[in-house]
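User: For my dataset I need records formatted as: sequence, then C-alpha cells, nothing else. Please produce one.
Assistant:
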Amino acid sequence: MTQKIGLLGKKIGMTHVFAEDGEAVPVTVVQTGPNRVIGTRTMERDGYSALVLGFDEKPVRQANKAELGMLKASDSKPQRFVRELRLSAEEVAKYTVGQDLQAKDVFQVNAPLDVEGWSKGKGYQGVIKQHHMKGMTRAHGTHEYFRHGGSIGCRLTPQRVHKGKRMAGQMGNEKKTVQNLQLFRILDEEGCILIRGSIPGAANEYVVVTLAATRLKYKRKGEGKEEVRSKNPLKASKKAAAGR
C-alpha cells in the first residue's frame, strides 16, 4: 500500500484563474483547512500505523457516544468527516494528537496530487447513456427499439447471461480517484487550494487529497514546448508563414 500524507477537504466548485504567462487555467476550489489530528494508529496497539484526521466541525448534540469517546484524547469538537491515512511509523510520529494541519504544512505548489471522492449519481440509466451503445436505426418499420439494449445471449448456447454483460443499471455514485493533478495555488487565508482540472463529486462533497502515489513531480504533456508554426499560408497568417 502506498503511504502518502494528505488532507481531507470539501469540493467548493470550479472556476478559472490566470497564470503568470497569461494562460487561463481551469481549477477546482477545495477547502482543506483546518484538519484536526484526532488520533493515531500504532503497530504495537493496532497492528498498523496511520494518522486519523477530522474535518468540518459539527455540534456536540449531533455526535453519538462513540464519537465523543474517540475525541477525548484530542480534546476537540466532533467532526463530520473522519478518515485514516496509512503512513509509516516515522511519519506518524511527526504529528501530535490535537494538532491542526493546513495546506501549507503538507503540500507545496506544483506538487502532483491524487484526489479521491464519490462521483455524481446518475440514477438508473440505459445502455446508450451508460455504455455509449449505438442504438437502432430510425428507419421505417422500427418501432420502440431505438434505445434498447438488444440481445443478451441465446437459450441454446450459452444458456445464460455472461458475467459483466453491459446492461442498463445504476450509474455513478462510485468511489473514484483522479491521479497526478497539479496543485496550482494555495490560498492560505481562505483555507483553500486550487487544483488544475476537475475532481470527482458534486459541489460541497467531501474528498481526500493526498500526494501522488506514482509521481514526485508534476509534468503535463506538451509543457514547456513551443507550438510549431505552420508554413502553409492557407493555414496561418503571412507573418507566421514568413517565420517571424
